[in-house]
Design goal:
6 helices, elongated, membrane, transmembrane, DUF3040
Length: 135
């Protein structure tokens, strides 16, 4: 749903104030979508894994140990790159863990009541949405 003219003016004023107040932060925020960058790195990682396996197989066919090791290192580097950027690319959320001494008691209770604990946040967001568009 597009913003109204009033909301667009307010947003532009906030952006101008941000640029005037802290230009370095504004430029870092404006650089682009982080999820898009993470997806690109995930794709590069997958490509590196494929290329690495191809070089590894080529090294095995050519009976060249250094070429096989190089292929393994390329594939491993691609896998590491993919794993490091997977969460940012997909928006996946890691489960939160409790303190080191907590072995399932409180965290299991949190797991069972997860839906109930998120409900107030959802209600607040829905209320804000209604207030914004009722005006």
């Amino acid at each position: 749903m597009p913003l109204s003219e009033h909301e667009q003016r307010l947003l532009e004023q906030i952006e101008r104030a941000l640029v005037d107040d802290d230009p370095k932060f504004a430029s870092s925020v404006r650089t682009g979508d982080r999820r898009l960058k993470a997806r690109r790195k995930l794709q590069i990682g997958a490509l590196l894994v494929v290329v690495g396996f191809a070089v590894l197989v080529g090294g095995a066919v050519a009976e060249s140990v250094p070429l096989g090791v190089l292929g393994f290192l390329i594939a491993f580097g691609g896998a590491v790159l993919g794993v490091l950027h997977y969460r940012g690319a997909t928006g996946a959320v890691e489960p939160t863990t409790g303190p080191a001494g907590d072995r399932g008691g409180a965290s299991a209770a949190r797991g069972r009541s997860g839906r109930g604990s998120r409900q107030p946040m959802r209600n607040r967001l829905e209320e804000r949405f209604r207030r914004r568009y009722d005006q």
